[in-house]
Amino acid sequence: MVKVYIVGAGPGDPELITVKAVKLLELADVVVYDRLIPVDVLKHVKEGAELIYVGKEPGRHSMEQDEINELLLRKALEGKVIVRLHGGDPFIFGRGFEECQYLIRNGVECEAVPGVTSAIAAPEQYLIPILLRGVSSSVAFVTGREDPGKGFREVDFRRLATSVGTIVILMGASEACRIAGELIQGGLDSSTPVAVVTRAYMSGSRVQFMTLGEVAGCRITVENPSVIIVGKSVRLSPLYKDAVSHST
Ligand code: SAH
To answer: pTM for this structure?
Structure first.
């Protein structure tokens, strides 16, 4: 039976890909890949394999999801070994699960291969312990941008504010200021530390430390791609102490 591998490529550093993913890339006849994958991982692909870019820039899609699904199915039915490569982990706000569903519905087997997600890697690169005994015993991974077509908001930042130890926001660049305001309205102190990690494990990666009140003030621009981390574990980063002492 034909099978498509839905594979995570990790957050940016080509060494943060799994051994399993590398083996599959070596084997693949067709690799269908995203925008946020570390391009260097494509060096594992064998000569003569077909490489297809289906990246989605915020607001500009080079290929619609339906077309990607159909492409995967068509190539699979040709009997080829297909790797669909996603940035980070394929099931963390990727469309990996939808692709699997579509393939399975159409009689094609699907195997998911986990990847290191930016939701975990971005804070970790800057030594922010999102889950730590005595400091933060729960974490919420949330999207900062929801599909406006759905007509309602699933993430209620006011209610989330005080219900978890650490909040990790993906796709939040354009909504950071609104979200910070809602977190404060929901009961978080405006002095709560925030880290914005941009381009984690990619060239030019950086962290900015600030307070929730500063983000809510709307004077901060958050670039894409960034992960926003809110909660007191941010303050534990040794780099946070440096940033604060340098700015005082
Ligand atoms: N499946 C991916 C996430 C896809 S959603 C994963 O597991 O990492 C896209 C969002 O992920 C971006 O808007 C950004 O918030 C985050 N992101 C992905 N790669 C990133 C990186 N290297 N640095 C910072 N944020 C990143």
So the answer is: 0.94
